[in-house]
Design goal:
Strand content: 15-25%
Distance between the termini: 68 Å
CATH architecture of the largest domain: 3-Layer(aba) Sandwich
CATH superfamily of the largest domain: Glutaredoxin
Largest sheet: 5 strands, mixed
Radius of gyration: 20 Å
Strand order of the largest sheet: 5-4-3-6-7
Number of domains: 2
CATH topology of the largest domain: Glutaredoxin
Number of strands: 7
CATH class of the largest domain: Alpha Beta
């Protein structure tokens, strides 16, 4: 009887543990529809073009601009001078999330050729969708607690960014 109880209870315990684990996982990857002004930014861990890993947790305590882009996207290219200028100041961390299918092979030489002075990590469709991305360029401004302050769907200007940064400071 005891042996039979073990065979019945063990699978039940496994199911409960698995359910608890899976529900915990789903909370770290919010529903894309939850990516909105005032919400917490989704967590990420992405490989930079230099081979290091950038984790979103390392950005806490800083105002952050996350910019989803690709080397083939002309409006994205037009934003690069603005982002470089912002990154040159010490107040804001700029992170470029490149969505090129060819990854580092294309992005790394592009970054060098354009003198991009902020970290560039390699994203993918899954990460883009996690952030509720639809088209690029796509930019999110985060406060030091990593809450979303502003979402830009489309190109940004220096004036756009300056205005929102004044409201955070």
């Amino acid at each position: 009887m005891r042996l039979m109880m073990r065979f019945l209870i063990a699978p039940l315990i496994c199911c409960v543990v698995a359910a608890a684990f899976l529900s915990g996982c789903s909370q770290s990857n919010p529903n894309p529809e939850d990516v909105a002004v005032g919400a917490q930014s989704p967590d990420f861990s992405l490989t930079a073009i230099d081979g290091t890993t950038l984790k979103s947790r390392s950005l806490k305590g800083n105002v952050v601009i996350l910019n989803f882009w690709a080397t083939w996207c002309q409006p994205c290219l037009n934003e690069i001078p603005v982002l470089k200028e912002i990154a040159a100041g010490s107040r804001v961390k700029v992170v470029g999330i490149a969505l090129d299918d060819e990854g580092s092979k294309v992005v790394k030489p592009f970054v060098a050729a354009h003198g991009i002075n902020y970290p560039v990590v390699l994203g993918n469709q899954e990460v883009f969708e996690q952030f509720n991305g639809i088209g690029i360029p796509y930019t999110l401004v985060l406060d030091p607690a990593q809450r979303i302050v502003k979402i830009y769907r489309g190109p940004i200007t220096k004036e756009d960014i300056d205005q929102i940064l004044k409201s955070i400071a």
